[in-house]
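Database export, one record per block. Field names are fixed; values are copied verbatim from the stored entry.
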Amino acid sequence: MRTVFTNGCFDVLHIGHIRLLKAAKSYGDRLIVGINSDESVRRLKGSSRPINVQAFRKEILEAFECVDEVIIFDEDTPCELISKIKPDIHVKGGDYDPMDYNSMPEAKIVHEYGGEVKIFNTIEGFSSSNIIGKLK
């Protein structure tokens, strides 16, 4: 069984999140989604975030058929969680270089145990921050 992992804040869900989750699930048999805790989101995005608390974000993601498990983590990166889970594939949304361990430190961990990193390109104009900005 191939385990796939992806992560993020998943604060205000949009089409980019949906496509990322579906793509990630297509790479394996089991999709685990790591979500940043409320405290972690505040450190990463600022004091006005998250919009939705971690319990709600977790429940929403668990409702998706393609998601098998959701785990909340407190760190700013999913490195510790990935070290424990050791997924076969780690899917990251964005324009990251999986060989640039400074911008994507979890990739080093995945590569060290023989896993694979796949990058899912973001959909231009769609991000939680952009949506929140439009609402303001």
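Remark 1: The domain at 3-135 is CATH 3.40.50.620 (Rossmann fold).
Remark 2: The first strand starts at residue 3 and ends at 8.
End of record.
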